[in-house]
Amino acid sequence: MPTMYPLVMGRRAILATEHYLSTSAGARIFARGGNATDAAVAATFVEGVVNPHMHTIGGEAPMLIYSASARRVVAINGNMMAPERATIAHYRSLGLELIPGTGLLAAGVPAAFDALVTALRDFGTKSLADVLEPALELAGDGFPMHVGLSGEAGGPDDAVAGAGASIRSNARRFLAKWPSSARVYLPDGKVPQPGSVLKNPALANFFKRVLDAESAARNRGRQAGLDAARERFYRGDIAREIVAWSDANGGLLAASDLERFTTRIESPVSADYRGATVFKCGPWSQGPVFLQQLKLLEGFDLAAMGHNSAGYIHTVIEAAKLSFADREAYYGDPEFIDVPIAGLLSDRYAAIRRELIDSGRASMDQRPGDPIAMRALRGAPAAGARPWGAGTIHVAAADRDGNMIAVTASGGWIPSSPVIDALGFPLGTRMQTFYLDERHPNALEPGKRPRTTLSPSLAMVKGEPYLAFGTEGGDQQDQWMLQFFLNVVDFGMDLQAAIEAPKFSTLHFRSTFSPHDNRPGVLRIEDRIPASVRDALAARGHQIEVRPPWSEGHVLAVQIDTKSGVLSGGADPRGQAAPVMPAQVIGW
């Protein structure tokens, strides 16, 4: 299949990111002897500078890492945590039935910094000063404004996924309500034009402060330096500034919330599919829903159906409906609730649920099952879903030693929360995904981590590293990634062809994000898929919404061929503002 981008290959290193500057940052670290984790951490820090509408250091950074030396896969729980004062009763006392999607009432403890430092400490080789150098330069000296962030000269907002997160779309809010954000992102009170230079002096100074802490402790070793930087963020003067900002703007954070916050290194969940073992983060993420879909689909001969045929698309979408219904019914922070993950991923449960897929008719119901009693149906129907909002970034990297990492970072979006004057970044608003209903598995509780859509992926074959991949896209992440994976495994495509192939998604299930609304039966499909296929799907009962040709999905992936030693990478030309700011891959 011809592709818009070539497949990028190398022998020593491969890196895929959302922006060429973050790819360049990772390449710089690779050239200085860093491994895949070092490069990915550097790239993620840069993403928080150049794509702040998609991610900043005030947000979250879940990741999966394969350590070649330890020969194991680990999950980094880079998810934020609810403050002690964040109770259902508190929000109800404010007359709220939902946690707002913007502002400090939705802000929990920022997790991304600790997650990145933890990954660097335990799986990298470089210092924080090494990996932060590119981000510090870009924040202090400035970077060229791009269309995806500016929103100027980029076409109508509704033509680009997430374009409502641009500076242009939020300029009035910044000027009227969030002057601290306007000072950074509206220099001279105007939307910066593409090609102009944007600086963030407060963010650069924040980077220098954590590096000063590292430098003061480096005589005690690399780990001591990293721990000192973390200590200053979560227990020192930076923590006090975060809490003061939260207090001044109606938030709930206290010093004790930051003090007790830690990043958990966990065992991932996994499932086998046609010779590959796929790893995902636990049910505090939506990651297991990818595995549930695989368990359902392994009972069908997808290749025989034909790629993107009506039968294939129908089967994949119906499997998604069943899997996401279970996500709504069971997933949440396993430190607070008992998630029946073994039952959800069992062969027996998949076989029971698979029988619910009608090959000739689209389901309009929400049908969670019962993985404990092993019954097909459970409970009352839930609501459905809506498109994703601001943005997310993904970074994937691998090196010649076999190390592999997938980072899906998001939150701390500049449209969702005002920039902290002294630090140059906003706090995340991921608490909006909690429910103010004590019966829900994702109900708000102090100290709990909200169920997140962030869902990095990693796959192994015969015990060897194979794929690391991910995407932005909220509730669509584990649909678009699934199609990419099936394109590789079932249809034999290379990474680039698998990424560029036309995609689709359903909005059938309840949205993760406030206000958790629904659009049952809706199937969004790129118009590159023929009208005859769309008509056949409509005849089965799907509510078809035809989308522009490059609007569904934004997958990034890297691959290791352990026999030849060749590393490959693929990037999506869709991009945050495609085709103006497509993602990038570099190999060596």
Question: Can you describe what's shown?
Answer:
The chain has 588 residues and is α+β, with helices and mostly antiparallel strands. The chain folds into two domains: 31-265 and 401-433, no CATH class; 267-388 and 454-587, Gamma-glutamyltranspeptidase, small (S) subunit (Glutamine Phosphoribosylpyrophosphate, subunit 1, domain 1), CATH 3.60.20. Helix content is 35%, strand content 15%. It has 20 helices and 19 strands. The protein has helices at 20-31, 36-50, 88-93, 112-123, 128-141, 147-150, 167-176, 179-185, 201-217, 222-235, 237-248, 255-259, 288-297, 302-305, 310-330, 341-344, 347-354, 477-489, 495-500, 531-539, and strands at residues 8-10, 13-17, 63-67, 72-77, 143-144, 197-198, 264-266, 269-273, 276-280, 392-399, 404-410, 457-461, 464-471, 504-506, 522-526, 543-547, 555-560, 567-570, 584-587. The chain has a seven-stranded antiparallel sheet. Strand 10 (392-399) and strand 11 (404-410) form a beta hairpin. 59% of the residues are buried. The model is unreliable at 155-163, 379-389 and 576-580 (pLDDT under 50).
Layout of SSEs?
Blueprint: E1 8-10, E2 13-17, H1 20-31, H2 36-50, E3 63-67, E4 72-77, H3 88-93, H4 112-123, H5 128-141, E5 143-144, H6 147-150, H7 167-176, H8 179-185, E6 197-198, H9 201-217, H10 222-235, H11 237-248, H12 255-259, E7 264-266, E8 269-273, E9 276-280, H13 288-297, H14 302-305, H15 310-330, H16 341-344, H17 347-354, E10 392-399, E11 404-410, E12 457-461, E13 464-471, H18 477-489, H19 495-500, E14 504-506, E15 522-526, H20 531-539, E16 543-547, E17 555-560, E18 567-570, E19 584-587
Parallel strand pairs: 15-16
Antiparallel strand pairs: 1-18, 2-10, 2-19, 3-4, 3-11, 4-7, 5-6, 8-9, 9-12, 10-11, 12-13, 13-17, 14-15, 17-18
